[in-house]
Specification:
This protein is an alpha+beta fold. It has helices at about 40-45, 70-80, 90-105, 135-150, 170-180; strands at about 15-20, 30-35, 50-55, 60-65, 110-115, 120-125, 130-135, 185-190, 195-200. It has one domain: GIY-YIG endonuclease (3-Layer(aba) Sandwich). The chain contains five helices and nine strands, in the order ββαββααβββααββ. β8 (about 185-190) and β9 form a beta hairpin. About 30% of the residues are buried. Mean pLDDT is about 85; it is low at about 195-210.
């Protein structure tokens, strides 16, 4: 029987890592936090390549990958800091999209899969040795995205680039405002929530262009 939907329980290789939640009154520009699952501290710091899935009410909204140092925890520290520094439109936009879903009382969760090491023969000038390597994470990402597309006919809703779609107009508008106000002051007046709030911008350097 062909599959007609995908829920979290269908991801036999994935682990639930955490749940997104709205922030309180802490300082900083981030609009949400992640409540990590008990016992995942070592896993979210693994530095081998990783696939992440953002679920909204049991539906996959985003499939991405990362190989940055610091593991999954650092990957989502970049997303969490998406309103400060010099983020890409993708990093900035995903931050706001997560916030919109939380504001709508949706359940937003994070799942992950890691690639595993394999033994391969490595040839040199005079001999050959067995080395431990990690396969390309892009191959895993492509497989996950294509399996999703085989079920739904397109990629997840927040995989805009892969779907050949533009980011929502409100996200693009807010991103342009953020870019225009970069470097002017440590405090910016940007209407991220539909009201004019003062957000203290965290200066995060070296943000990667996340998938």
């Amino acid at each position: 029987m062909s599959r007609t939907s995908i829920i979290a329980a269908d991801l036999i290789h994935a682990s639930k890592l955490g749940t997104f939640c709205l922030r309180g009154q802490e300082k900083g520009s981030a609009l949400w936090n992640i409540q990590w699952e008990p016992g995942v501290d070592a896993k979210i710091k693994q530095e081998n390549g990783r696939i992440y899935f953002i679920f909204v009410d049991e539906a996959i909204y985003k499939i991405g990958c990362s190989e940055c140092k610091g593991g999954m925890k650092t990957t989502f520290a970049f997303y969490k800091g998406g309103l400060g520094g010099s983020p890409s439109l993708r990093t900035f936009g995903i931050h706001l999209l997560i916030h919109e879903q939380l504001e709508a009382n949706k359940k937003v969760e994070l799942y992950g899969i890691w690639n595993e090491s394999i033994q391969v023969p490595v040839k040199g000038l005079f001999g050959e040795q067995q080395d431990t390597i990690f396969p390309s994470i892009k191959s895993m990402e492509d497989k996950c995205r294509n399996e999703y597309k085989n079920v739904y006919g397109k990629y997840p809703p927040w995989n805009f680039q892969e779907n050949g779609e533009q980011w929502p107009h409100n996200i693009q508008t807010k991103y342009k405002a953020q870019v225009q106000q970069r470097g002017c002051s440590n405090k910016k007046s940007i209407d991220f929530n539909g009201i004019n709030e003062i957000k203290e911008i965290q200066k995060l350097e070296g943000l990667e262009d996340l998938e």
